[in-house]
Amino acid sequence: MEKLPMPHYVNCQGSQPRWQKKSLTTLLLPLILLSAQPIYAATQTTTVYSVNIPSGALGNSLSRFAAQTGTAFSFDPNLTNGLTAPSLNGSFTAHEGLVRLLTGSHLRLSQRTDGSYTLVKIAKNTTSKGAITLSPLAVTGSRGYSGNEPLHFDSTTIKGKDIEKFGVIHPVDIFKTTPGVLSGEARSSGSLDVNIRGLQGQGRVLTTVDGASNQTALYRGYQGVSNRSFIDPDFIGRVDISKGPTGKGGIGAIGGVVEIKTIEASDILLDGQKIGLRLKGSLLNNHSNPDDYQRNDWPSPSKNAFFDAKNRTGSIVFAVAEPSYELLFGASQRKRGNYHSGKHGPGAKKRGMPGYLCQSDPQDCLIPQFSEQMAGYSLYAMGDAVPNTSEDSQSLLGKGKIRFGDGHEISAIVSHYQNLYGESYVADMANLSQTFMILDQGPLTRLNMNRHSLNYKWEPSSNPWINLDIGVWQTRVNDRPRTSNNTLGDKKFMRTVGMNLSNTSLFELSMQDIELNYGASFIRERTGPSEGKWEYAVNREGERKEGHLFLNGSYMLTGRLTLMGGWDYKSYQVEDYSPVPSLRRKLASGKVNNKQDHAHGYWAGAKFELNNETALHAKYTYAPRFPSMVEGIRGYMMSVDDYIKPEISKNIEFGLTSRFPDVIADNDSVDIKISYFDNRVKDYINRSWMDDYWSMYISNIKAAKFAGLELASVYHSDHFDARLSMNYYTKVRFCTENEGCVARSLPSDYATNHIPPKYAVSLDLTRKFLDDKMSINARVSHYGQRSVPAAKPGQGSAALLAPIIWRPATVADISLTARMNKHVEFEFGVDNIFDKYYIQPLSLGYIPSPGRTFRAGITTYF
Predict the structure, then answer these.
(1) Among 713, 716, 712, which residue's Cα sits nearest to residue 666?
(2) SS3 state of residue 327
(3) pLDDT, tens digit (0-9, with 9 covering 90-100), for 516-539
(4) Can you say whether the dihedral through the CA atoms of 841, 842, 844, 849 is positive or negative?
(5) How far apart are CA 323 and CA 13, in angstroms?
(6) Contact between 35 and 110 (Cβ < 8 Å)
(7) CB–CB of 242/21 below 8 Å?
(8) Using CA atoms, how far apart are residues 683 and 597, in angstroms rounded to an integer?
(9) Domains in the chain with CATH codes
(10) Which of 9, 20, 346, 573 could lock onto 323 through a cystine, CB 3.0 to 4.6 A?
(11) pLDDT one-digit tens code per residue, 417-445
(12) What span, in angstroms and rounded, lies between the C-alpha atoms of 245 and 251?
């Protein structure tokens, strides 16, 4: 058979499933890469296509897959006679799509000597006669925007192109259109601290980058702990968000997992290229130099000029792709000063000029002298620069991948991130009397993070029992954060090492395929002073280890009903290395107690397809979470219950997904997902104030409960896309033995400022023109007040964890993208177009968000 011309060769043997932490059906993509056809495609194995194929005859489904993805292949029609394929709605690589279509067909891929593939039966090879050849179609690379995004039941995918539509000044903004997902401490430090369905911090939500844990816990005084994750937005290829207790990558994550995957060669290369280069840059306004805040006689300096390039982002990425290997190298910088808040809303108004007061006494700038006192809201004056919000980061990324033999692949990733950023010590800004705040510009925090990972995959074409994935990784973080009284604290390190091992096997039961995914994972965390000892207050110092064994499976009981379930076993150990004997755990014998425990979990779920477009879903999960480093090791003014128990999440979730084709016009569609969740966390780990010990105390309370509704809907047509997202909390409760269950947070508990809005709504619109070369994008986000009020803080030398009360707000963004040709793209945008003054939900301090900000950017491909 004559080979088809191809810009890129898709080595299907080397491509592997994306381990999306979703329902089990997604978790265990069949390892049987059934292919009775030589396969060629115009894109890399990492290219993701959006497809919509109803269940039906296998031969017809394969033909539709070719038409929708541009994949060209051939197969013997006799092999597919009488066979059916399940519906396929979503985003998949060519490999993943074929895997799902061929599930249960007893067919798989077999590699020919020329590197192509052909469909064969699992039991015996079959000679291909009377082959049908499907014509190749034009393919839009993975850089093309697709509004036909699928809606998965318990997960969400954010594509790189969706992120680029509005640009990213602050990483937290990538979650604006994702129901039930927010980030805490949104405007300080340039990091992520993800909240999923009310659960946040202490490892309840795990954030990874290319499979490596990417989190560091930072004590922020009485106001709690910030769990920070750092990533340069220019290097984000896609974000997969799994909600609720999840699979192998989410050790201890009872709230969910955010998997950030960095860019691949296919994101950089133009069609037909094997070597390519991407240059990207943008300019911003609405910022001013951070050092001017101390020198200037006014509280707020003037904004930098737009074209002076003092506020900018820029990156360069080089990529090479061949059938047997891929290479990618990138460098990025993001530099901006302190942003200015909005001018319209319930913010403070200027009343005077403190000037010399801030300069002569850099600790306290007395608020009443220059702004109106507004109890319960921010005291920063509207339109002024917000000190300690600057950023100056540099990032490096290197990736390599080789493929060889029968389905072997080895990949390595090295990345470096450093940031010199401003941050406010929020405990200095939360005095409930609202009579003073430390508003002056403080010293900048310096952070360095290095990530390394090595991964091996093996998926032989003739063995359905093997789909092996082994990975090892490490993350090294060093930082020196700002502390109270406008000073820098001790240098601190965080070292995290991990290992993941999994395999997927496929076999038959009663003529139906069973998929089993099983394996193990391990993580070790260690923290302490970078220079060997603490110079100031003694902080946490110790080591934590956790191991995980798991087994998941799925079984298609009938053509419409799929059953899923799993079991796991976890164990952990924590060692306290505190140099102060009174802080270390001790047994009655006087020996140091290395706290350890173990637990098991399980889950069960079902999916029932009412028809080709609509499916019902249900899932129950019983999942343990052991104490984190912060909860398991004592520190300054912090005691821990020696008999602390793991949290147990008992989560029920059910709902439906549906697609309606040809609603208004031909080839359009509406996707809807409605879900209800009810998560009861037994033995919820809580922080409280203990008068007897004059210390904070970490212990278990009876339970915490979170329940709510989520709606996600997408309308897609040839030139217009609309995405509506909503979530509403029906229940937030904290339960203690003394009070029972109360509809408020508890005094001094970290969760005080983790309470999400009662409801949130987001609408994202895209209109394309000029053969899709130009698009106008608009986004409106609205959130309500806290789901439940906060309790009065505990007593102490200061207000102990004051609640940050935000007010409902509506924020609108707009952008325009224009593709001049295949080499050049322009982007213009305005964030917060109406210049609203507002505080982002889940903030740890009274820090207003940025006001109206203009952006202009250019991206070039060579």
Answers:
(1) 716
(2) strand
(3) 999 999 999 998 887 767 766 667
(4) negative
(5) 10
(6) yes
(7) yes
(8) 15
(9) 24-133 (3.55.50.30), 267-861 (2.40.170.20)
(10) 9
(11) 999 988 877 666 655 444 445 567 778 88
(12) 9
